Structure formats: C-alpha cells, structure tokens
Amino acid sequence: MAEEVKLFKTWSTPFGLRVVWALKLKGIQYDAIDEDLSNKSALLLQYNPVYKKVPVLVHNGKPISESLVILEYIDETWKQNPILPEDPLEKARERFWAKFNDEKLLPSIWDAFTKEGKEREEAIATSLENLKFVEEELKGKIFFGGEKIGLADLVFGWLANLICVFEEVTGFKIIDERFPVLLAWMQEFLELPIIKDNLPPHDKLVIKYQALYEKYHPAK
Amino acid sequence: MDENDVKVKVLGSWSSPFVMRAMIALNIKSVNYEYLEERLWEGKSELLLKSNPVHKKIPVLIHGDKPICESLVIVQYIDEVWSSTPSILPSDPHERATDRFWAAYLDEKWFPSMRTIAIAQGEDARKAAIAQLEEGLVLLEEAFGKCSKGKPFFGGDQIGYLDIAFGCFLGWLRVTEKMSVINLLGEAKTPALLKWAHRFCSDAYVKDVMPETEKLAGFGKMIMAKLRGAAPPKS
Q1: Taking a C-beta distance cutoff of 8 angstroms, is the pair A55, A31 a contact?
Q2: Model-level ipTM above the cut of 0.90
Q3: Rounded distance, CA B44 to CA B29, Å?
Q4: Which residue of A has its CA nearest to B138?
Q5: Residue A52 contacts B where some CB pair is shorter than 8 Å
Q6: Contact at 8 Å (CB) between A54 and B74?
Q7: Under an 8 A CB cutoff, do A62 and B94 touch?
Q8: Is 50 exceeded by the pLDDT of residue B1?
C-alpha cells in the first residue's frame, strides 16, 4: 500500500524538529506542512482538536499528536534504526529523561529566558540544578542512547541548536564550562549528518527569539 | 534469571493516584510485591531519596536493585518485563498512540485542574478549573466510545493502559464532587464514563488498592488546611 506521511509543524518549533529528525533517521518520506500559528489551517484544527498545536503526524489519514507520542509511534511503525532500545530498563531510562526534558529542563530554561527579576533568578537556579542532573546522566556516554542516538537525544536535541540562540539574544551563558559532558554531547550531536542537515537557519532563529525576548522584556 | 525470582518493591503513598497505577499494573501481571508506605508529611525516606534523586517523588518501582520512576514509565516497564498476557497496552501502534495521548492529557491538563479547584483563589479561578474538568470529561466520554468499541473498558474486555491512567483519579474525583458540591460524572453528559467508573472501581485488580472516598476526603481536608496555613480540622 502506498504510504502517506504528513507532518504539520512550524519552521522553528523544536517539538516538530525532533519528529523531523526521527523521520530522517528512519529514511521515511513525508510531506512537511509549515503552519502559521497566528492563522492555523483548517486541517490542523481538524487533526488536533484537543490542543490545536503542532506537531501533528498524519499517517495514511490518521493523525497522531504530542511529540513524544509521535516519536514512539514512529519507532513502533517503522522498525529500522530504532530510537528505543529492546531492554525494558533502558527503555524506561530513555522515557524518564525525555519526560525530564519536556516537564522540567525546557520549561525552566524558557522561564529563565522570559521572566524578570526574582522569578528570573529562581528560574536560572532551577535550570542549573536541572542541567546538573543531565550532566550526571551523560557521564561515561557519548549519547544518552549510548553509542548511537535514541529518543532522549532527539528530545534534548533542542539544546544543541537553540541554547546558543538564547545565549546570543540574552548575553547570558547558561551551559558553560561547569557542564563539560553536556557541551561535548552538543558538539557530537550537531556533527551527525541527520541533525546537521536538518536545522532551522540560525540567523532566522536569532531574529525570531530577539523579537520574543523584547516582547517579554519591554524597554521601560 | 526468572523474573519471578527477583524482588519487587513499590514505594508509595496510600492517597496517591500515581502509585495506584503501578500497583494495578503489577496486580494484572500477578506479580508479588512489597509495598512500602512513605509518610510524606514526615519527611522522605533514605530509600526514596536514593531511588529517585531527580524528583524525590513516589511512586518508585524497585525491581531487584533497579529503581524505575514516573508512574506511566513504570506501567509500561511492567507491561514489557512481564510480557505474558494479559497485556496492558494494545499491540497496534495507532491504538497505543491514542492511549498515550490521553494519558498525557490527563496528567498535563486534566488532573492539574482538579488540584487547582482545591487551592483556587477566588470564585472565577474555581469556576474556570471546574469548567476545564468538565470539558475534559466530555472529551474522555467521546474517547471512551472510540477506544472501547462497545466493550466494558478503554482497553476492551479487560482494563488496559488508559483505564489505569484515568481510573486512578476516580477517588479524588469523588472527593472533589463531595467537597465542591458539584456533579462531574453524570448521566446527562458522561453516561458511559459513569458506568465505566463503577466497573473500574469494582475490578478485581483495582478494588484492593483504591482508597475509600471518606478516608481520602478527610486527608484532602487536612491538606487544604495545611496549604491555607490553618490548623488541621479534627477528623
């Protein structure tokens, strides 16, 4: 049967990008639809009525929403180049860290970017605590998945291309020499062809996040 | 080594819906386990801090000497390790994705609204939280229709992943209905879920680990009092 795979995303969303990387890793042909979130398409609203968000994967007409759910679906549907290991304990570890990124690390860094004053100080402190846990987890490994990238690498992958953008815009370096293992991981990750060839343009990201930063920190 | 020879422990708290998930999953697989109650208000045990240094939260499943954290990660782990029937997750990838989607919705959107009702400042915040809960239940009523396909549970003939993920919240749902004097699950808008809730709570794998509503309500009042800084009421 002819396979039809569509991915609704935006040009910049890290949640869509992780799905792109998974599809590329497995060599899956797909149509990308970049949405304008200020003017969402009827199709997106139909495919994701609960959240009305990207990314949404549509496989042979059936939609799947929520990036972590999509990643597991992709891994279970297309078996080549698995992103989850066979061993249940290792799988549990990957899922734990994927959740940690989405529920703790990413929100804390986002708060550090968007908040002001005391809230910002607290967000930075929380981000550093979270980064310490990640640094510890990576010790002795090249990737979260071991010798090859896996689910957790794809999920943490936003750090590799967005952290430098945040740092450029804010003038504040959050992943510094206190995190040598994480810095090494970011470099290794960015050198992988699947990743390197599938990144949103850096300059465009800087413009976007500069504008967002100014929105959150209006000049008084 | 036979999985059945390795010791299994659950670190939990009797009032936690998340801990219930782990225990129901172990019950489905007929796995013997030792349950260790954490008295969370008295400080966290050494074992908890050692087993879950990142979150310091329950539940933790300890399989042999390996800790597994996060309730939905635990349930999937149990399903994969003790892979004999009955299965907790369906085998079809699209059905698995649907189950996971709704479980994530429950944890990220729905249950947090329930907590908000208890601590909401002002009537508007309370009403908004109640509206979110009601809206979610209507969505879940529809999801039940699609997932169950006329059978008793989201998982079909037997309870499955989404039954566990959702059903564990029924105790606190009933407490919320009682304390806020509202009707969340009802004949008018959620007739199928109302019946499902009865079936779930009476299920053999569930009934011994579902706390009594009265006991939960008393505990709920105590927490609310502490959160508001008042002296706890005499129960």
Answers
A1: no
A2: yes
A3: 29
A4: A50
A5: no
A6: no
A7: yes
A8: no
What tokens appear for A178 in the block?
């206190």
Is B101 close to A69, i.e. CB distance below 8 A? yes
> Residue B124: what residue type?
D
Count residue pairs from A and B with Cβ separation < 8 A: 55
Please check whether residue B164 is in contact with residue B75, taking contact to mean a CB–CB distance below 8 angstroms: yes
The pTM (predicted TM-score) of the whole model is 0.95
What residue type is assigned to position A184 of the chain? A
Q: DSSP readout, A152-191?
A: HHHHHTHHHHHHHHHHHHHS--SS-TT-HHHHHHHHHHHH
Q: How confident is the model at residue A89 (pLDDT cuts 50, 70, 90)?
A: very high
Put simply, whether A216 touches B (Cβ < 8 Å) is: no
Q: Please compute, for residue B115, the number of CA atoms within 13 A of its CA located in the half-sphere on the CB side.
A: 11
Residue B235: pLDDT band (50, 70, 90) is very low
* Residue in chain B lying closest to A105 (CA): B54
In this complex, is the C-beta atom of A94 within 8 Å of any C-beta atom belonging to chain B?
no
Side chain identity at residue B174, one-letter code = R
| A213 in contact with chain B, both atoms CB, cutoff 8 A | no
For residue A63, the chain B residue with the least C-alpha distance is B94
Helices A67-77/A14-25 angle, 10° precision: 10
- Asked whether the bond before B59 is cis by omega within 30 degrees of 0, the reply is yes
Handedness of CA A27, A29, A34, A39 (dihedral sign): negative
Percent of chain B with pLDDT over 70: 95
* A56-65 tens-digit pLDDT: 999 999 999 9
CA A205 to CA A59: how far, in whole Å?
29
Site of tokens 């009601």: B134
Residue type (1 letter), B14: W
Amino acid letter, residue A210: Q
